[in-house]
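Dear colleague,

Following up on Tuesday's group meeting, I ran the structure prediction for the two-component complex that the binding team flagged. I've pasted the input sequences exactly as they went in, so you can double-check that nothing got truncated or mislabelled along the way. The structure tokens for the whole assembly follow below. Feel free to forward this to whoever is handling the docking comparison.

Inputs:
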Amino acid sequence: MGCGPARGPCRAVAGGAGRRRAARALLVCMIGPLLFGACGRDADRAGALRAFLIDGPGPGTWEVQGLSAKRTTWIAPHPDDSAWLLKAEARSGGDARPCVALRGTVAREFLEGPWELFARNYVLVGPGRDEPTRDGAPAFHLRWAPRVEARDTARHVWFDAVTGQVLQIEDVAREGQRVRGIYRTSSSTGRLDPERMRPGGVGDQDICVQSEPESIRMKVLLELAPFPLVAPSWLPAGYERIGARYEELDDVRVGGVEPVRLASLLYSDGLGLISIGIAVPSDMDALQEKLAAMGPGDGEPGGCATLPPDAGPVAAGPERTLRRRTDRCRTVLRLDGLEGVSVTLLCRNELPGDEYVKVMESLKRVTAP
Amino acid sequence: MAGATRMETGARPGPWAFSAAAALLLALGVASLVGSSGATRPTDSVQDGASFASLHVVDDPSVPLFHGLETFDQLAGSVLASADQSGSGSGR
């Protein structure tokens, strides 16, 4: 934790009358990081990150990169209600009509994991340093690491050198590969046109469509899924279920007739994600075939373009064999024969590979929420 | 306790008072340092053919890495539509 001589509240106070204050300041600087993760200006920056996570990104042009795709979003303040933001996907030509989003949902959309889990499982580690953003803006760089020992994921955050606001976030997995990047590329809100917003209540207001995986609970999933539901009985430290979803995918049909029926569970520690899909084997095969044909959306911004070559299937027993495909950025695990369903786990290698195997090994039939 | 009494009566704290605080801080600091560096780093020990308690792990190149899909939740978005536009086989 940085509590150097230039860090305001952490500065030593000279003189006999200031001795107690100096001791108190020293105490705050030494214990503060243990309790709150920051002191002095770092505490201000931690507060700026908290504001970003809870209240959403500031106005401007934001680029969000995953492993496979990137997109650019214009964000502007809502003209009437500070609880909301105006948001539009950046595109060429013409003014963009914004949709209206609750502030916190925008950060959740950018970062995927809930901020509450991030706050619980990650802690600020120092010292930070002056370091420009990817686009060359003067900034101060801090890093948050897992409280769990010997885990290598991290969230790197760059704060504006003048305003202290969040300019850039990069989440990295265990071998340093970037799994997520969020960049404020400009303070301009582009061609987002607040005049084109259509306030007026239900059916007339441009509410941004938000993915709400929490809206389906396990109880509902059990009622909806027409096949036995299985779920991990063990999770890596800090991980919790943050979503449960059931879908019938009209875009993917088995034999061109029946839509694929898929139950999915999503787990997170606030940064890392574990996604588990459950379907009957024929549906999982159809979905796998469809998804295998997909290419990266926009030039593989995650830098994982090199894939191991396909070499045909390996001989595997019908049960208790976990089939794995992995590269530097992703791991896919598939287990067939458990309760008559196929289970596929997707992850971005935030954890050691053993942990994902243990998750699959712990799968058990779920009969009650 | 004696130190606290002296502080409450307004007397200047002796050098030992500061030393006690420093010792506490040092202990906390040492504990923090030990906590942050004392653990061993787990290794990614999953190898082709590795057997866990009930699972046998095999690297299977026929399992796709699902370019463009990082979580199944993304299926709810436009992933499949973009797959149709990107054509089959790209990126593989």
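The longest helix of chain A spans residues 19-36.

Cheers,
M.
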